[in-house]
Write a structure and sequence with these properties.
Number of helices: 13
Bound molecules: coenzyme A
Largest sheet: none
Radius of gyration: 22 Å
Strand content: under 5%
Shape: globular
Length: about 300
């Protein structure tokens, strides 16, 4: 909490960013810009990286809330040191007193998102660190990797799935047709979890409870119907993004903020990996395997 206040120039830097800019891009710029105000920016010791990680964990949610408020033509809120990270974030975003249940739901979802082994964005953070580059560069690269719809960006697209299915005459037929057309249904499938994502199973009851409290039971029913068709037709199960998108929607947050919420949570995991990589470093440098035609003949320039 004591690290949460963001240097004034960082907030001022956010002001001229065009309001149509995706918040994930604003966050990426913010993470990079924070480096210029961090006294440890260039230091690569364990202690310096720990201090930078603590500051990033505290400040990135404030940058996110400020970017969001500015896009709405409103002044950013100052962090309240008496609130938890999740409570503060919700309060700064909505500027309305959240209920305990709402804070708990966000807190659990952020905890579930906090770390997940060698996913693409963590790998990006490790790769940048392996060149002996700095902490802020690694986090900025990780945010860029997380943004893609096959990774963290999927949670924002889950609402498109729910909206399209809800507008169709028959939601189940809509899913069947999408599968038939080989369209990817965001929030389903996982490279590692082929028998179900435990995070999705864990979040589901929390999501249902929040839906009940916020009058969103119909969306839960729709989600259940889509899950059933995906299981029957493709044998695919929900991943973490499927319930977390609904959970954020029930908290009254817009879809553009879903992936940035994932990012501010994952700072914990990225930071742990950056520290670990730096402590036992070896350059990560994959080799490519050439699979094109070989060998090829060529005419010297003088003969062409
Ligand atoms: N919707 C529809 N079909 C899907 C699918 C989805 N969400 N995920 C996988 N499939 C299908 C593929 O089309 C493919 O079908 P086919 O064998 O008939 O061609 C099959 O399942 C295997 O897909 P593949 O891309 O090889 O699996 P993967 O392990 O590489 O993919 C993901 C993992 C996460 C990239 C993939 O499941 C996906 O794109 N999911 C949607 C995005 C998402 O929710 N990402 C968040 C992950 S936490």
């Amino acid at each position: 909490a004591s690290d949460a206040p963001v240097p004034g120039p960082v907030i001022d830097m956010l002001r001229p960013i065009p309001s149509r800019t995706p918040l994930m891009d604003v966050l990426r710029t913010g993470a990079s810009y924070l480096a210029h105000w961090d006294p440890d920016a260039a230091a690569n010791t364990v202690e310096a990286n720990q201090r930078k990680a603590e500051r990033m964990l505290a400040r990135l949610p404030v940058v996110l809330a400020a970017g969001y408020r500015l896009q709405q033509g409103k002044e950013p809120a100052h962090p309240d040191k008496h609130r938890t990270l999740a409570g503060n974030l919700l309060w700064m975003l909505r500027r309305a007193e959240p209920s305990e249940g709402m804070v708990e739901a966000l807190d659990v979802s952020l905890t579930v998102y906090a770390e997940h082994e060698y996913n693409a964005s963590t790998f990006a953070a490790r790769l940048v660190t392996s060149t002996m580059s700095d902490y802020h560069s690694a986090i900025t690269a990780a945010i860029g990797a997380l943004k893609g719809p096959l990774h963290g960006g999927a949670n924002a697209r889950v609402m498109d799935v729910l909206n399209s299915a809800s507008q169709a005459a028959n939601a189940r037929d809509w899913v069947r047709q999408a599968i038939g057309e080989k369209r990817r249904i965001m929030g389903f499938g996982h490279r590692v979890y082929k028998h179900g994502d435990p995070r999705a199973i864990f979040l589901k009851p929390l999501c249902a409870a929040l839906a009940e409290k916020t009058g969103n039971q119909r969306t839960e029913e729709l989600a259940g119907a889509i899950e059933q068709v995906m299981r029957e037709e493709k044998g695919l199960l929900p991943n973490v993004d499927w319930p977390s998108a609904r959970l954020y929607h029930y908290l009254g947050l817009p879809a553009d903020i879903f992936t940035p919420l994932f990012a501010v949570a994952r700072v914990a995991g990225w930071s742990a990996h950056i520290l670990e990589q730096a402590a036992h470093n070896r350059l990560i440098r994959p080799s490519g395997r050439y699979v094109g035609p070989a060998p090829r003949s060529w005419k010297p320039l003088s003969e062409r």
